[in-house]
Amino acid sequence: MKIYKISSNNDFDLLCSEIKPHNIGKGIMKKKSNLNYFYIKNIKRSAINILKQDALSVGAELISPKDSVLGGSEIENAVLIANDKQISLLIKKEAMQDFGLKILSNFLKIKFKKPKIPQIMGVLNFNNDSFNPFSRTKLKDCIKKSENLINSGADFLDIGAVSSRPGSKYIGSKAEFERIKPVIDELYKHKIYEQTKLSLDSFDEICLRYALDHGFCFINDISGNTALCELAKEYNAYYCLMNMIGSPENMQDNVKDCDILGVVDEFFETKLAQIKDYDKIILDVGIGFGKTANDNMKLIKNLEHFLHFGFDLLIGASRKSLINAYFPSKVEDRLAGSLFLHQKAFENGAKIIRTHDVYEHAQMFKLNQIYSKITI
């Protein structure tokens, strides 16, 4: 007999393909192989005590304040730890309880489905003030750079003509259109839209409509203007809804840590209620847009939460000052930090990774795919 301690990140199905258990047994064991953590805010002590007993009865755990055992109407926080099998049992138990536990039961029913393979969105900016000089592109280099990014592994190209870096001011619709029209025309002339999906990083309807008329299929809107989703519907295009606190001009002024998961969650809930019957929506939590470094890290680490809305997630942390906050560095020296943050974002539920460094990300994710298929 030989015994090996193997990674808990091994693919359960691949392990079973080697061991060959009975299919019924495999289904039962798979529900026990995945551990879930749920942070429950503002729950009454009376509810904590009920949930604690229910959790223990199915083999799960509830981390709760030591004084919650005294009961009462005081509001506390708690963490539920349970595998998929235990979750299925708790759904039934809490559906029969009061004190708000029916809400918990409904939330536990949600399937938080993470993507298996990421998609990469390369960035090209046609202005002179984007925070990353490497992304700045001249019209004469448009096709060459586009094809290089596509050949490096870009599933999308995100084209922009206006900077949204902290402190930037919008140049206006007319000026933006004058900048972006020649770029759109050049991409359309060379049929780049046949090689990859084209996205326009804009919130101006005139620019967006022109792009959609010329091969673009993705509206990347930082403004949160859900009226632009109606434009996306008209063209059967993707609409990316991003959270920004403030505007680019003032978003990083006096930022403070907050309940960032709650703030972004409420934003998406409110905005999505304004959109009816459309499924080509992408959600972006807006890394660096009016948030502290700590809040940005919280969003990436707990990104899985936002899968409860049922839409794909996009993350763009490429070479941003978040990296500099923890490891002082210039923009050109933040590749390693970008790769780390984007790998974690993918592991936590992001499907689309927006980056200035397509080749390096394609290489990383290819190795990640191979790694995930390795067992013993």
Question: What does this protein look like?
Answer:
- The longest helix is centred in the middle third of the chain and has 17 residues, at 173-189.
- The protein is α/β, with parallel strands linked by helices.
- The mean pLDDT is 93.
- It is 41% helix and 16% strand.
- The strands form 2 sheets. The protein has an 8-stranded parallel β-barrel, surrounded by 5 helices. A 3-stranded antiparallel beta sheet has the order 1-3-2.
- The relative contact order is 0.10.
- α4 packs antiparallel against α5 (101-108) and α7 packs parallel to α8.
Give the topology:
Blueprint: H1 12-19, H2 23-33, E1 35-44, H3 45-57, E2 61-63, E3 75-83, H4 84-94, H5 101-108, E4 119-125, H6 142-152, E5 156-160, H7 173-189, E6 197-201, H8 205-212, E7 218-221, H9 227-235, E8 238-242, H10 260-273, E9 281-284, H11 293-301, E10 312-315, H12 321-326, H13 335-347, E11 352-355, H14 358-372
Parallel strand pairs: 4-5, 4-11, 5-6, 6-7, 7-8, 8-9, 9-10, 10-11
Antiparallel strand pairs: 1-3, 2-3
Helix pairs in contact: 4-5, 7-8
State the total count of DSSP E strands. 11
Poorly predicted parts: none
- Per DSSP, what share of the residues sits in E-state strands of 2 or more residues? 15-25%
Average pLDDT, all residues: 93
What gyration radius follows from the Cα positions, in whole Å? 23 Å
Write out the strand line-up for the largest beta sheet, numbering strands in chain order.
4-5-6-7-8-9-10-11
Oligomer: single chain
User: Which structural class do the helices and strands define?
Assistant: alpha/beta
Largest beta-sheet characterization: 8 strands, parallel, barrel
User: What is the end-to-end distance?
Assistant: 15 Å
Label the overall shape.
Answer: globular
Please count the helical segments. Answer: 14
Helix content range of the residues, please? 40-55%
**Secondary-structure element series:** HHEHEEHHEHEHEHEHEHEHEHHEH
